[in-house]
Write a structure and sequence with these properties.
The protein has a single domain, classed as Up-down Bundle (Na+/H+ antiporter like fold). The chain starts with a helix and ends with a helix. The radius of gyration is 19 Å and the shape is globular. Helix 5 packs parallel to helix 15 and helix 6 packs across helix 11. The model has no long low-confidence stretch (mean pLDDT about 85). It is built from 15 helices and no strands. By secondary structure, it is mostly helical.
């Protein structure tokens, strides 16, 4: 358990560096954007490739994939019931609310936590694939269809369904899995280069995240009850479902139980704000949920990690 808490301390420390640099006006939104892009397009794909090419696939892709999937879709179903009955929201609003309640920030929070808390970034791969291959294309296709109908334009479902093929994270995962499954051995020169590039991803993302916490807008006053409910679904309900499924239904070992619980408790992905802007749907809701869950998630998953017990 000491290693887990030490990992969280390391993450918070680097986030704090980003916050401090922004507070001292040494870094701003431009720096945040540059750090995020470098990490997303270069560092993170290299990190995923590097970890998955040597990962224990039998351990990684087992019942934990099913647990993570069920936790996502159960949480999504609870929100949709509330949005359809209690709040009676529009279809576009439901898409953004659904994303907010269950779409995990697997990039700039998931990978650092996997690296420093779980000691293995390959744990992120299954949940990343679930979101990129299923949730993202489906949700964006609905938003695009609604926008096209509103403006009398045509929409391309194929463009959204093919998004995983254009996502650098997905390509890094696929390449790493291919090398692993084929049992290929990379030249030391090439492997060393990949690992060096991968090393920039985690600190760059955490510093960028710290900048966003300092410069980002505070939550607004609209949809307070729904915003709080979605935030609780994300950082409390989803990891609790994952933990109960892992422990009581599937009997996962302590390491896998910790992994699925911690990853399920990550904050709402910042991509959701981009989705909302793209579809012109519930932008304030997306922004507020991301802000709240970003602040609440690490304390929440730290407590949950302590409750799961030693690994």
């Amino acid at each position: 358990m000491g290693d887990v808490l030490s990992g969280f301390f390391t993450i918070w420390s680097v986030i704090g560096i980003g916050w401090l640099l922004a507070h001292l006006e040494m870094l701003d939104h431009t720096a945040q954007s540059v750090l995020s892009k470098v990490s997303f397009y270069v560092g993170l794909p290299a990190l995923l490739f590097s970890s998955l090419r040597v990962a224990d696939l039998e351990r990684i892709f087992s019942y934990n994939v099913l647990v993570s999937s069920l936790a996502i879709f159960i949480t999504l179903a609870v929100y949709l019931v509330l949005a359809s009955t209690l709040w009676q929201r529009s279809r576009g609003h439901k898409v953004i609310g659904s994303f907010g309640s269950c779409y995990v920030n697997a990039n700039n929070m998931g990978l650092p936590i996997a690296a420093y808390v779980l000691k293995d970034t390959s744990w992120v791969a299954p949940i990343l694939l679930i979101q990129v291959i299923f949730l993202q294309p489906l949700g964006l296709s609905i938003l695009d269809a609604l926008s096209a109908r509103k403006h009398g334009q045509a929409t391309s479902w194929w463009y959204n369904l093919s998004m995983p093929l254009r996502n650098p994270m997905t390509l890094g995962v696929a390449a790493g899995l291919a090398v692993n499954l084929l049992g290929l051995s990379l030249p030391n020169l090439f492997a060393g280069t990949i690992e060096l590039v991968a090393g920039i991803s985690v600190p760059a993302m955490l510093i960028a995240f710290g900048i966003s916490l300092r410069t980002g807008p505070l939550p607004g006053k609209g949809n307070v009850a729904e915003t709080i409910t979605i935030s609780l679904l994300k950082v409390v309900f989803q990891p609790l479902v994952a933990f109960l499924l892992a422990r009581l239904v599937f009997g996962l070992d302590p390491v896998a139980t910790l992994a699925v619980t911690v990853l399920a408790g990550l904050p709402t992905a910042q991509n959701v704000f981009i989705f909302a802007m793209r579809g012109d749907q519930s932008v304030q809701l997306a922004r507020d949920v991301i802000f709240i869950t970003s602040l609440a998630s690490i304390p929440a998953v730290t407590v949950m990690a302590a409750l799961v017990g030693p690994v």
